[in-house]
């Protein structure tokens, strides 16, 4: 049996393109003792992958050239030589951009069985890494109190949408940034944010800050930052004393260009806490986060939206579109 895979063919010079990827076919190896064969149903596409494509210093090693692109997957065990897994088990893991993966069933964190009462795709979004990212940044870093104001950039995305809903459940006023009227309407009308600012309607950080002043008249106590650049500058202009910024992503700079910070003195003047974090470094918090997220999705109090590309060959263009904000919610690739 053959396996289709997408490998990193070359490193981007500036903006990533479809030419940086290559679709290949390879035979599936026979299973060794302790291994599990998984057929992927969905592949997750996430902004962090763009950083891994660069050969530069970061929190993780660069994606090797000629090897299968890294990525979260959810699917079904089709064969197993490990006592903990059986054919038919639904599992989530880091299978990468390919139809099948052979996994060491005993390796910590490589594979996890999931409850099929929830949609499988949810384990790559609201009840997966993006959801836990949202939970950790909000609960452990921003740690908001009821009545405080939390601002979320990329509010309609897989992470930002969950941040806002968790903050509302904790009694906060929540303001989002999103690109376009349709996304802003979704953020307010379906996700329950108090307000949403369409960043495309504003030419610079000061214009964004004026809109934020109207949406958050009492200032901002917590910021969940996914974008950087002018959006973050605008939020910093409205931060209250001792505000907390959970720095999750900087999608404004994923092409490798510097991201200036216009008023870094505000960190001092407002005594702000700015903390970057990588959710995989906080595995001890995952069980508590996943319990709340799964209960919220099952009960309908955490809503999510997905953009689904069809077939492995569509993954590169879907990934590039996500980096441009063309997706609406969690970007997935359906593989079955």
UniProtKB/TrEMBL annotation:
CDD domains per the UniProt record, alphabetical: PGDH (cd05288)
Enoyl reductase (ER) domain residues: 16-333
Source domain of life: Bacteria
EC number: 1.-.-.-
Keywords of the record: Oxidoreductase
GO molecular function: oxidoreductase activity, acting on the CH-CH group of donors, NAD or NADP as acceptor
PANTHER family attached to this UniProt entry: PROSTAGLANDIN REDUCTASE, PROSTAGLANDIN REDUCTASE 1
Name this protein carries in UniProt: Alcohol dehydrogenase, zinc-binding domain protein
Top-level taxonomy: Bacteria, Pseudomonadati, Pseudomonadota, Betaproteobacteria, Burkholderiales
């Amino acid at each position: 049996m053959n396996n289709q895979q997408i490998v990193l063919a070359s490193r981007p010079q500036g903006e990533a393109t479809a030419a940086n990827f290559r679709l290949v076919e390879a035979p599936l190896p026979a299973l060794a003792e302790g291994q599990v064969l998984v057929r992927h149903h969905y592949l997750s596409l996430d902004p962090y992958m763009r950083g891994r494509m660069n050969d530069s210093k970061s929190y993780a090693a660069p994606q090797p050239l000629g090897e299968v692109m890294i990525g979260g997957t959810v699917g079904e065990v089709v064969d197993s030589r490990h006592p903990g897994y059986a054919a038919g088990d639904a599992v989530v893991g880091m299978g990468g951009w390919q139809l099948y993966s052979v996994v060491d069933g005993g390796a910590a964190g490589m594979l996890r069985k999931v409850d099929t009462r929830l949609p499988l795709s949810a384990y790559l979004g609201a009840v997966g890494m993006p959801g836990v990212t949202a939970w950790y940044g909000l609960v452990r870093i921003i740690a908001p109190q009821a009545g405080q104001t939390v601002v979320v950039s990329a509010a309609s995305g897989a992470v930002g949408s969950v941040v806002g809903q968790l903050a509302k459940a904790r009694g906060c006023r929540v303001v989002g940034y999103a690109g376009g009227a349709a996304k802003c309407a979704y953020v307010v009308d379906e996700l329950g944010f108090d307000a949403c600012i369409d960043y495309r309607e504003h030419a610079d950080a000061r214009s964004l800050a004026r809109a934020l002043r109207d949406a958050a008249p009492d200032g901002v106590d917590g910021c969940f930052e996914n974008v950087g650049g002018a959006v973050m500058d605008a939020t910093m202009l409205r931060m209250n004393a001792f505000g907390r910024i959970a720095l999750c992503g900087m999608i404004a700079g994923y092409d490798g260009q510097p991201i200036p910070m216009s008023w870094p003195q505000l960190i001092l003047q407002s005594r702000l806490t700015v903390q970057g974090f990588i959710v995989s470094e906080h595995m001890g918090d995952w069980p508590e986060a996943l319990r709340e997220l799964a209960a919220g999705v099952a009960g309908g109090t955490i809503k999510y939206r997905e953009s689904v590309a069809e077939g492995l060959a569509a993954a590169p263009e879907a990934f590039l579109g996500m980096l441009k904000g063309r997706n609406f919610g969690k970007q997935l690739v359906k593989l079955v």
